[in-house]
């Protein structure tokens, strides 16, 4: 029986001298306590040395996949004719048996035997010292780790994390220094602060000008535009600032030099960051830009850690305080974090920023995974997803879109709803036209007079209306006079007939509906008042009875007490 043992230097085949000892697995470890006893159990039959590190790496990767390498197959064909082979991996034994037709064994006895061989490896293999075996195993392990992780020096994202941190620090320092220059030189030339808004241009102008009295003699064409230059020269003549010494000006110019040097270094650092981002994360850079992508990587810790996060986490990355505060106070959670500064979110309207940030975070999560774990080095995926997001943004804003970037077709044409129009037919009712007769005032007055005559019975009590205009009163006079004439004619006819007429007595007329309603309401009110009075009486009677009962009870109690006494 043979035993296959893998070492960093090559493959070794050991011959089992006494197979009877394999039956006693518990006592097998005692045989390998000393080199002499170990040589009585196994002996080296053959050794296949690796030619170089690449061959060792190939063999190790094949063994991890439970498959024999090309060199191992040749080695076993030569030395394992008609022998059974003990292996440490059962899957590897099955592969050898299928390809090489060699019987393989994998059990507890073989595993215990391999453990014993490992303890006495340097003694069993002549020429292989411990000082040689340690660096071999270390080099092979490093090579294997690089191969498994697909390590690339260009993919190191630590440089990006440090560069974006330094860029933010430079921005803070630049802002602080520039504000100090403005405050310091503002005592001498305060008007210059409003004339030049840019900090770098301000520092260049101060460095070139020095004292404001020199402004009229100098040429600022290389630093400032013509309009700003003329305004500066005019303000320098009538400036309200104080006079400063040459020593103060020298220190101010030194500070201006610091501002300009920092701005130049910041530009160089930004170019370096841009190139690193295009190398390490090209798809993420195409979606959100260099600065936002670098801040996302720095906030996540690394590109691999960021690739493990879902899109919802990428969306609010950087807004952790707001998220936990919202969860604690049971308010609405934030819709975006660092991703808010991306150009796509900035282009969207305020009401669409939440939707666009959610879509952008989902696409960014895919781009990060592609950059971290994919083999492609181009930014085609990022550009394609950016085009889709721009199409979605146009669709949300209601702009015309022939065909969306995805599989869906273009948006259907939206027609304005018209209640007077049927589907595929004309108008149900004719369109309303302008009525010029509605503008005349006299026609309205006559119509109202006719309505007043017809509506003799009022429907409900109304508030006192304002007096009608004089034109309406003039229109009502002839109708009133006609009624008076009719009454006079009736009186004359009654006199001629000999009927008694009393002018003082009013004419008996039937009660109107208004009066009837009044009587009805009065009757109802009287009935309600009567019922209330009855209820009050009953209540008073009940109270009187209860008071009488209580007095009786008190009297009986007093009598009982007296009798007991």
Q: Write the CATH fold name of the domain at 2-149.
A: Nucleotidyltransferase, domain 5
H/E topology pattern: EEHEHHEHEHHHHHHHHHHHHHHHHHHH
Mean pLDDT: 80
| CATH C-level class of the domain at 2-149 | Alpha Beta
> Which secondary-structure class do the elements indicate?
mainly alpha
CATH architecture of the domain at 2-149: 2-Layer Sandwich
Record the strand order, biggest sheet: 3-2-1-4-5
The span between the termini is 123 Å
Instruction: Determine Rg (CA atoms, Å).
Output: 53 Å
* Shape descriptor: extended
Strand content: under 5%
Per DSSP E runs of 2 or more residues, the count of β-strands stands at 5
Secondary structure tally, helices: 23
The helicity comes to: 55-70%
Low-pLDDT windows of residues: 400-412, 422-428, 455-475, 499-510
**What does the main sheet amount to?**
5 strands, mixed
Main location: nucleus
Subcellular location: Nucleus, Nucleolus
Pfam families: Nop (PF01798), NOP5NT (PF08156)
Keywords: Nucleus, Ribosome biogenesis
Question: Your description of this structure?
Answer:
The chain contains 23 helices and 5 strands. The protein is extended, with a radius of gyration of 53 Å. Helix 12 packs across helix 14 (290-300) and helix 13 runs antiparallel to helix 19 (353-373). Among the domains are: 2-149, Nucleotidyltransferase, domain 5 (2-Layer Sandwich), CATH 3.30.420; 158-268, Helix Hairpins (Orthogonal Bundle), CATH 1.10.287.4070; 281-401, Serum Albumin, Chain A, Domain 1 (Orthogonal Bundle), CATH 1.10.246.90. A hairpin with a 3-residue loop joins strand 1 and strand 2. Strands 3-2-1-4-5 form a 5-stranded mixed β-sheet, with helices on both faces. The chain is mainly alpha-helical and 565 residues long. 60% of the residues lie in helices and 4% in strands. The longest helix is centred in the last third of the chain and has 52 residues, at 513-564. Required for 60S ribosomal subunit biogenesis. Residues 539-553 have a biased composition (Basic and acidic residues).
